[in-house]
Amino acid sequence: MQSPKEVIFSFVSGLMDGDGSVHKSRNVIQYATVSKRLAQSLVILLQHFDIHGTIYTNAKCRIGGIINDRPIKSNKPSISIEFKGDSAQRLGKELNLMHEENSKKLNILINQNIGKSNYEVLPYGSIKLFQELSKNHLGGGWYKDDNGNKFRAGIKYPSKTKIRYSKDLHSKPLRISQIIEWGIQDKLKKIGSELFEFLNSVINNKLYFVKVKSIEKCEKEVTYDIQVENKHEFIANSMIAHNCMGKYHPHGDMSIYDALARMAQEFSLRYPLVIGQGNWGSVDGDPPAAQRYTEAKLSKLADKMLEDIEKNTVNFTPNFDNSMKEPIVLPSKVPNLLLNGTSGIAVGMTSNIPPHNMNEVCDGIIAMIEDPEINSEELMKYVKGPDFPTGGIILGRYGIQLAYSKGKGKITVRAKCSIEKNRIIVSEIPYQVNKSMLLEGMAELVHNKTIEGISDIRDESNKKGIRVVIELKNNANADLILNQLYKHTQLQTTFGIIMLALVAGQPKRMNLRDIIYYYIAHRKRIITRRTQFELDKATDRAHILEGLLIALKDIDAIIKGIKASKSVEIAKKFLIDNYTLSDKQAVAILEMRLQRLTALEQDKIKDEHASLLLLIEELKGILASQEKILNIIKQEITELKNEFGDERRTEILDISDEEVEDEDLIKKEDVIITLTHAGYVKSNSLEEYHSQRRGGTGIISTKTKEEDFVENLFVANTHSYLLCFTNLGKLHAIKGYQVPRESRYAKGIPIVNLMQLEKDEKVTTVLPVTGFSSNINLMFCTKKGLVKKTPLEAFAKPRKGGVLAIKLKDNDELVIVKLSNGNFEFLIASKKGQAVRFSEKDVRVMGRNSSGVRGIRLVNDIVIGMEIAKPDSNILTVTEKGFGKRTEISEYRFTRRGGKGVRNIKVTSKNGNVVGIKTVMETDEMMFMTENGITIRTPVSGISSIGRNTQGVRLIKLKEDDKVSSLARISASLIENKD
Predict the structure, then answer these.
(1) pLDDT of 1 over the 80 cut
(2) What average pLDDT does range 298-311 have in this prediction?
(3) Element (H, E) at 353
(4) Is the pLDDT of residue 969 over 90?
(5) What element of type H or E holds 885?
């Protein structure tokens, strides 16, 4: 509406050209859409220009038909807006349609003589206005004004016919435009009618009227507050607070108002006891508005807590100044202590009972009534656990079991989060967490770089629910960041359960069975006292009716005796002495109206007496039977469940406390991890690398900075421990999910961000392991040919700064580390093409702080790799110029460690030095990485199997300035899983 009128109708014209139609015979302009919001907004927009439309919805999806020569194809309900009559003409004059056919129809519609719109009809206008005029009409068109002066002002139709001659005038609809045209306004002003101001307001404010679609009668609701009539639905909270303070709680109105506000907050109580109007605070910690701005009334559930309080069901005690009485407890048909919980502290004792689900609590109560010996563990089949109003997730059942069996326990509550693309969506937060402070805490962690990878945090919450959007950076691992948020923020909290309450005025810590047992005992007392009250009332009434029945049998004599008595006391004595009546019966007879003497009234008395006798027997039967009382409790609880029961909001995850680790919410999957010479690391999904035949050009795996190249590539699982061994002989342990997930074109992040490395220290080997077993060894091999065997369990407790894995001497460096079971054979290969095959048993077990023994004797050479020599497998050797070959293990003769070995591959200027070896099977695949970041993935079966003393075949085409830097094997089982 802030745009100029020309702009608005240009927009509307565009809509009509696209999906509008003009019906000249019906004088209708129609617009069709599938967007309900667009239809409503368009109608509201045009109402500002006195153009009124009606929305029609076709619930069925339309498929077929033609509008504006175009077929209709829709799988959504269609919505149409129709502008009729003069509204259609007003709209048509503003439209500028490009569609030629519609434009012609529009010109015809605009120039037609169209009647008045029904939107102008003034309800009951004809009757009310002409009745008003008739009162002041003197005859012949003469009227008397408010000063008593006569004036003549007849009302005529546009055809000059006098309106008063119209016989059906009062039944005709009267429109606002007719009131203006006929001058009715001026006449009402002259005669001083009150209707003039009303009509003036309608015309000036351009008010229109529509028919009421339906009128529904609401149930009567009772309001509980002294000094306020029952006809009031809502009560100003100032009155409630001050009445309460003056009569029951003289300790300040703020504590009263705070308690009232909490009972109205849907995020505080699972089942609110107060329905409020106005601002009652928010989950962001905003306080409620001042008392004078809010109103409240009891909810239907709260009515159930007060039910039967007038039937002597509970004891009353004097208030603070002995001027009034207040109930010690409420009859409370509702098990509110469990449903809404409670929290408080006094005289050194703390209570913190969580809220629960109505359906579950009711089922638990019924189960205990049917089996009084049921224990807390069995009750947990019905009462699953706390059910918070804000939802969330409870991790594990151990804390719940402890609280329900011992009366005290702790539970871990998490927010409900989901990961969508590159963002984290928070839809539910833990109970009693301030959302605003939660977001501030997140922002502080991002600012302090405690959590990295978050680019933006937005609160998109509204009346429909909570929605917090955490935008992540492109290279961020969403699972890892979510776990860090759980660890460092209130997205995960601990709720301490202490089930302490007053029992007969004494504080007592109770388990689940105790609370339900005392609730049933309370309801048994309430029903017993209520039944006794109703029995006493029925008995008294039956006694009175018996007296009336005695009187009716001899009514003539009784009337004569009463008339003869000089006073009421004499008449009462006459009845007691002559008819053996009690004092109450005699008074009732004297107060009886004469209408009760009719035959019909006498029958009513007899019927009432008979029904009371049956009721008395029924009530006595209830009091005499505990089983009937329990059945009444079951019936009432079932009604409560049917009326107020709902679905559980808080989810309970069946996991043990030991299993609740950060990685529990991280997807288990195999990833490709790359590490560059300059120390940049990242992970990619294995599926990003499609298989190619040997000799292909490959795909870009990572983008490296100038003078950097990829040095390590391996396959790992996100939940594996990644044992990172450095060239300086140290071990750093991280988790697979800690390596950030990035695109193939990204260079990754510096590995120093994940571990603490010294100057010139770089990772040479990464081994994924699931645990630190005592039956597994680590076999180390250094650049100078030393080997060492150390049990894996020796590294079970790595420190943040790393631990020493092997003691290196004479500028030696660690080349590779392998896992072994103690019975493997190993093959060590050198850069110049030599290899030695030996048994692991030739190497004794050593500690972490040892250097090892000689594995291969080198002459002007260095070790480039060590592989496990598996039987029936091949050794794949790759050179720096992209050549390689497979050779069967059997071709390498078995020797002891420390020898020079045999020729592995023929090294020439054509193929270059050896860069790596791998033990492979026929069904495996290989990945090769170059210094410029080019990767190729190819089946092992496509690589030639030839002898040791050969140069190999071309595996990857390289540019002149590029060399192969590393290689990795993809096992057959991994390929099958991905397929």
Answers:
(1) no
(2) 92
(3) strand 349-353
(4) no
(5) strand 883-888
Q: What phi and psi values does residue 247 have, to the nearest 5 degrees?
A: -110, -30
Distance from C-alpha of 276 to C-alpha of 282, rounded to nearest angstrom? 13
Q: Can you give 195-230 as a three-state secondary structure string?
A: HHHHHHHHHHCCCCCCCCCCCCCCCCCCCCCCCCCC
Put residue 901 in one of left, alpha, beta given phi > 0 → left and psi -120 to 50 → alpha.
left
With beta carbons less than 8 A apart as the criterion, state whether 867 and 827 touch.
Answer: yes
Residues 6+ apart with CB under 8 A from 97: 13, 16, 17, 20, 22, 103, 106
Note the pLDDT tens digit of each residue in 383-412.
999 999 999 999 999 999 999 999 999 999
Phi (first) and psi of residue 377, to 5 degrees: -65, -40
Question: Buried b vs exposed e over 224-262: b needs ≥16 C-beta within 10 Å?
Answer: ebeeeeeeeeebbbbbbbebbbebebeeebeebbeebbb
Q: Please say if 293 is a catalytic residue.
A: yes
Instruction: Yes or no: say if 314 and 328 are a contact pair by the CB < 8 Å rule.
Output: yes
The one catalytic residue among 257, 293, 486, 745: 293
Parallel/antiparallel/unpaired status of strands 777-782 and 814-820? antiparallel
Q: What is the CA radius of gyration of the chain?
A: 45
The residue that leads in pLDDT, 866 or 657, is 866
Percent of the chain clearing pLDDT 90 (strictly above): 38
Q: What is the pLDDT of residues 578-625, one digit of tens each?
A: 888 999 999 988 888 877 777 778 888 899 999 999 999 999 999 999
Backbone torsions φ then ψ of 790, nearest 5 degrees: -135, 135
The predicted-structure confidence for 913-950, as pLDDT tens digits, reads as follows: 999 999 888 888 888 888 887 878 888 888 888 888 88
**The two structure tokens encoding residue 130:** 């002409």
**Which residues face 731 on adjacent strands?**
725, 803
At 615, which helix (H) or strand (E)? helix 599-623
Beta bridge partner(s), residue 468:
426, 459
Q: How, if at all, do strands 814-820 and 964-970 pair?
A: unpaired
Helices (H) and strands (E) in the chain, counts: 24, 48
Q: Where are the alpha helices (DSSP H) in 340-434?
A: 358-370, 376-379, 398-406
pLDDT of residue 699: 52
Which token pair is 739? 């390596």
